């Protein structure tokens, strides 16, 4: 049976040691969130993750959701777990206190989210989607709408969804057909078919609030004619009780590669009553507010699955005995050595570890900037934070989910043939991880967002929010012996980013296909450079503490050693990626269509 | 629904144009196998693959095998398909005519095998395992045993298995516990438990011939005390009819990530009657004869799945419309352009194509050498062929299966969210492909075999069987304009191989862990260099024909363009792999065990 223990030590390291947590506590509204309080929240989150959510992860995969006549049932135990989840206040931790939230800093909330994703990513989607709906509604809804709908979403009494995709359009929402016709009373009548609606129907909550993209009768064609509507499953009465069922139903759930505990619904809206959220024809922008939150969350899914897969691979590598060390017997009392002695097993584990801890540190940085954006009253700081988070959102989404899949697959590899057997629970991580590379915009779309939109935006200002701190860091640590072996590798990765950026921007002036041709390789190159930077920062913090005795020092030594592994064995990929980018669009565009 | 058309044109290119097929036809016993005959066999193989095996691929995944009281039932349609398969002579194509085989060259047989793997890899395991048993028995059995058992295996009337793995040992067979006690009549009584036995029990054939590894009472400990026994499900009578049931049963089948149509059995032997095959205590060597055949077959599974996944990705990319080309509308008559216009979609397709066609060409080379080894009467040629096949077996097994999984995942990515839905049949390829990286020796074990065994063997002679032809080719084509842009990349990849080889061999003299630390990266580096060489050879053949008009020329132009894509975008990975190898074992071995 799989195991999971929340990596609290590493999370605390990122929150309190790597970054300056006092600066976060000094933001308006954060005075109560002392390091001690945050630590105790993390411990509680660990408890519910390990004890309530994790034990349901395999059950959910095995049973999946069931569909019958429009009714969707979640797997055994989900209802009780969801109740416990809501009672513990986990649906509301980072939400605005004005609507019943706890206003916790996003830095801590992101760590909590990682635990939920490790423990049970399929379950986590239900509150996860609700949070996305909360964000969109909070940003674009009227005061009246917010008062009417947000408290029940924040408390978890009701859940939320985002209804974008239609059978013929996913990436290209300009083609969407769902219609919204105004009624006399100010509401709208919504008609159309949506697919791939996570948590579109289920038995966890008494009501479901759908945010639906649709077209008004006079809407312009394409993405400029899309509006957002709030369409609840049940129409609430004035007194807050639930009224009649709205004109929609779930017509099927998908049978998927994984994520079986999450209901992926086909929804049919047939004159359902809805309310316009925000301005007419501005629905896509409103939905993107939600989408950006979701994209970061999806990145955290990749990280969370990677963490739990890694933990199980370590446990198996310690326990499984097979063969002897190439350098001589290590466990003479046993019939064979634990496979942890084999260099290649350690390579797989350290690869996983180096990516996971790097991603967690990078996520921590993004969360800090989002927290500043949300709560700071310093305009310049907010702008810088917004720039940085915008730049990094596609990187977190795409790189973390690519790595989540790769690391889950490495865990299977560590298990050997046993990894392929369902009972062990490891192959589930590969299947569950695979979706994150696809939904909320495929990873190819993320890369286009990074290269085609974020890099050129505002004259390249967004990228400087990353480059400047790296250059400052390199400069500040020129005489730091602890970093002597790391800075050249970091500098070279940075040069690769700069050269690739220049090449693409120049190429794109004459041929826009150069953007698409380079995008995925660029995103990984940029992501690796970002990881190199956070690894160097972690070394700067850990190295001075690594020389002491005791278990605490072991943690810091492991940090420095993992950084070394990352720099020496993984970071060199930037060179190959740069070479691929240099080759440009020609090799892929000149190939004749008919020859594929 | 998925599609599959056997890539006959490319197969013929490899068989007849890339390599010299007359040399194969001139080998003893091959006179009948004219290019025309081989082409017609390929066409027939395409027909049964496309029309009989492929339509059962999704059914087999959905239904899986069922187990009840020791009886295993294969999915709907498998029995009929197996009958058709046997009647068509497909179980016997490459087998020795002395035992009812058709003696077809392995060069053609490997292409046929690829088609079966594309069409239905789970089904293909049943005859695949039989073929492995055929090879082992033919190599190590007595004349009497061969006459008694081989004809029914060759005809497909009976099937075969290899029973190695036990619950506590897979890689490390030295620990195996199954016992063989001599009976008075010269037979042995076999007792023990085996797991992961593909085709261990099923309803396709009237009898199953198990080749079981077990220990004699006085056997030395470890791998030097393992013997091989033939243990049939039913004991045949003198007259050839089936006698009593033997003392064994299937106690369970595994529920797996994929490959559901293939029964993976736990087998319990309880005093079953068996016959010693080959000499006592030499069972592992005998089994390795089978294992090497199986390892190549598993590599071909990776290639076969990659091919069918790629074909479906292409079909979807042509048909799915979404968004517009970055360089302006390409299909103005449609609401959006087919996604094939997007550079990143083309990157995914060309990456797949470049690996697939490269692997097919490399497999063709290995098959030639195996055919020479099997049929030539020239001792030097046989030795050279044996060396080359030994060197390449782990590369084919590991690299092809790694790539099979990667390419199946790229196909899912091309499909976007739809790729995650079971009905589309694409995610099945990811699940089915994953096992090939694990069984018949994990890919980590393959890499150790390459670096720890094959490289140092006979003073490094095996590697020269690859290096020499590459150096000769580079030398011979110095003035060939068609190759001018390809030779520098090939030369550099070769230098990377040479540098890495030197580093590892030198490091291994003082620290054996250097072998394990470098092995997986080395295998990929070596594999990429091998693909670079076959791509250069393909260019040498295709370039002169690429300039003409018509569809034929398009095929050759596509070859040259794909070669360019491979060299520019994929081959640069060798630099990153070399850098990782250079860093040595220290970063992974110094990491403290307790810190994982």
TrEMBL record, chains A, B:
<keyword id="KW-0285">Flavoprotein</keyword>
<dbReference type="GO" id="GO:0016627">
    <property type="term" value="F:oxidoreductase activity, acting on the CH-CH group of donors"/>
</dbReference>
<feature type="domain" description="Acyl-CoA oxidase/dehydrogenase middle">
    <location>
        <begin position="162"/>
        <end position="271"/>
    </location>
</feature>
<dbReference type="InterPro" id="IPR013786">
    <property type="entry name" value="AcylCoA_DH/ox_N"/>
</dbReference>
<dbReference type="Pfam" id="PF00441">
    <property type="entry name" value="Acyl-CoA_dh_1"/>
</dbReference>
<dbReference type="InterPro" id="IPR009075">
    <property type="entry name" value="AcylCo_DH/oxidase_C"/>
</dbReference>
<protein>
    <recommendedName>
        <fullName>3-methylmercaptopropionyl-CoA dehydrogenase</fullName>
        <ecNumber>1.3.99.41</ecNumber>
    </recommendedName>
</protein>
<dbReference type="InterPro" id="IPR046373">
    <property type="entry name" value="Acyl-CoA_Oxase/DH_mid-dom_sf"/>
</dbReference>
<comment type="function">
    <text>Involved in the assimilation of dimethylsulphoniopropionate (DMSP), an important compound in the fixation of carbon in marine phytoplankton, by mediating the conversion of 3-(methylthio)propanoyl-CoA (MMPA-CoA) to 3-(methylthio)acryloyl-CoA (MTA-CoA).</text>
</comment>
<dbReference type="InterPro" id="IPR052166">
    <property type="entry name" value="Diverse_Acyl-CoA_DH"/>
</dbReference>
<feature type="domain" description="Acetyl-CoA dehydrogenase-like C-terminal">
    <location>
        <begin position="468"/>
        <end position="591"/>
    </location>
</feature>
<keyword id="KW-0274">FAD</keyword>
<dbReference type="InterPro" id="IPR025878">
    <property type="entry name" value="Acyl-CoA_dh-like_C_dom"/>
</dbReference>
<dbReference type="Pfam" id="PF02770">
    <property type="entry name" value="Acyl-CoA_dh_M"/>
</dbReference>
<dbReference type="GO" id="GO:0050660">
    <property type="term" value="F:flavin adenine dinucleotide binding"/>
</dbReference>
<feature type="domain" description="Acyl-CoA dehydrogenase/oxidase C-terminal">
    <location>
        <begin position="281"/>
        <end position="450"/>
    </location>
</feature>
<feature type="domain" description="Acyl-CoA dehydrogenase/oxidase N-terminal">
    <location>
        <begin position="79"/>
        <end position="157"/>
    </location>
</feature>
<dbReference type="InterPro" id="IPR009100">
    <property type="entry name" value="AcylCoA_DH/oxidase_NM_dom_sf"/>
</dbReference>
<dbReference type="InterPro" id="IPR036250">
    <property type="entry name" value="AcylCo_DH-like_C"/>
</dbReference>
<dbReference type="Pfam" id="PF12806">
    <property type="entry name" value="Acyl-CoA_dh_C"/>
</dbReference>
<dbReference type="Pfam" id="PF02771">
    <property type="entry name" value="Acyl-CoA_dh_N"/>
</dbReference>
<keyword id="KW-0560">Oxidoreductase</keyword>
<dbReference type="InterPro" id="IPR006091">
    <property type="entry name" value="Acyl-CoA_Oxase/DH_mid-dom"/>
</dbReference>
<comment type="similarity">
    <text>Belongs to the acyl-CoA dehydrogenase family.</text>
</comment>
<dbReference type="InterPro" id="IPR037069">
    <property type="entry name" value="AcylCoA_DH/ox_N_sf"/>
</dbReference>
């Amino acid at each position: 049976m799989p195991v999971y223990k929340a990596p609290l030590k590493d999370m605390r390291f990122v929150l309190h040691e790597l970054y300056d947590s006092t600066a976060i506590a000094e933001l308006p509204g954060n005075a109560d969130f002392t390091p001690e309080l945050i630590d105790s929240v993390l411990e509680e989150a660990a408890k519910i993750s390990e004890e309530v959510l994790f034990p349901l992860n395999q059950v959910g995969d095995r049973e999946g959701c069931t569909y019958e006549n429009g009714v969707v049932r979640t797997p055994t135990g989900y209802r009780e777990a969801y109740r416990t989840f809501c009672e513990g206040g986990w649906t509301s931790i980072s939400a605005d206190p004005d609507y019943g939230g706890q206003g916790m800093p996003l830095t801590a909330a992101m760590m909590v989210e990682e635990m939920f994703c490790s423990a049970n990513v399929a379950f986590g989607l239900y509150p996860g989607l609700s949070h996305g709906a909360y964000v969109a509604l909070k940003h674009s809804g009227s005061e009246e709408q917010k008062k009417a709908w947000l408290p029940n979403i924040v408390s978890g009494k009701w859940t939320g969804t985002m209804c974008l995709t239609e059978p013929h359009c996913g990436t290209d929402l300009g083609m969407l057909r769902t219609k919204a016709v105004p009624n006399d009373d100010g509401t709208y009548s919504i008609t159309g078919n949506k697919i791939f609606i996570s948590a579109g129907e289920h038995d966890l909550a008494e009501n479901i609030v759908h945010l639906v993209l649709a077209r008004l009768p006079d809407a312009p064609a394409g993405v400029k004619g899309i509006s957002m509507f709030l369409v609840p499953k049940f129409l609430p009465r004035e007194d807050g009780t639930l009224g009649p069922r709205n004109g929609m139903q779930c017509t099927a759930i998908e049978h998927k590669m994984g994520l079986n505990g999450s209901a992926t619904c086909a929804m049919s809206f047939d004159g359902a009553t809805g309310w316009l959220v925000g301005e007419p024809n501005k629905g896509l922008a409103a939905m993107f507010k939600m989408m950006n939150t979701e994209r970061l969350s999806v990145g955290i899914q990749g990280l969370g699955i990677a963490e739990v897969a890694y933990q199980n691979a370590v446990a198996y590598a310690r326990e499984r005995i097979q063969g002897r060390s190439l350098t001589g017997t290590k466990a003479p009392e046993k019939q064979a050595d634990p496979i942890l002695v084999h260099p290649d097993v350690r390579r797989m584990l350290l690869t996983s570890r180096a990516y996971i801890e790097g991603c967690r540190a990078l996520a921590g940085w993004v969360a800090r900037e989002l927290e500043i954006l949300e709560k700071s009253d310093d305009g310049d700081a907010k702008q810088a934070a917004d720039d940085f988070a915008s730049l990094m959102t596609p990187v977190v989404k795409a790189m973390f989910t690519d790595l989540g899949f790769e690391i889950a697959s490495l865990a299977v590899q560590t298990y050997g043939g046993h990894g392929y057997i369902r009972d062990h629970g490891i192959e589930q991580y590969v299947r569950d991880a695979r979706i994150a590379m696809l939904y909320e915009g495929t990873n190819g779309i993320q890369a286009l967002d990074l290269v085609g939109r974020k890099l050129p935006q505002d004259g390249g200002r967004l990228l400087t929010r990353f480059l400047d701190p790296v250059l400052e860091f390199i400069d500040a640590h020129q005489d730091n012996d602890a970093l002597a072996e790391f800075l050249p590798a970091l500098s070279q990765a940075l040069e690769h980013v700069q050269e690739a950026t220049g090449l693409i921007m120049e190429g794109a002036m004459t041929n826009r296909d150069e953007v698409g041709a380079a995008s995925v390789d660029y995103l990984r190159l940029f992501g690796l450079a970002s990881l190199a930077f956070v690894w160097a920062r972690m070394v700067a913090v850990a190295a001075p503490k690594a020389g002491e005795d005791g278990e605490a020092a072991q943690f810091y030594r492991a940090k420095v050693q993992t950084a070394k592994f990352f720099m020496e064995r993984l970071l060199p990929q930037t060179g190959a990626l740069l070479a691929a980018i240099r080759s440009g669009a020609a090799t892929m565009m000149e190939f004749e269509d008919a020859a594929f």
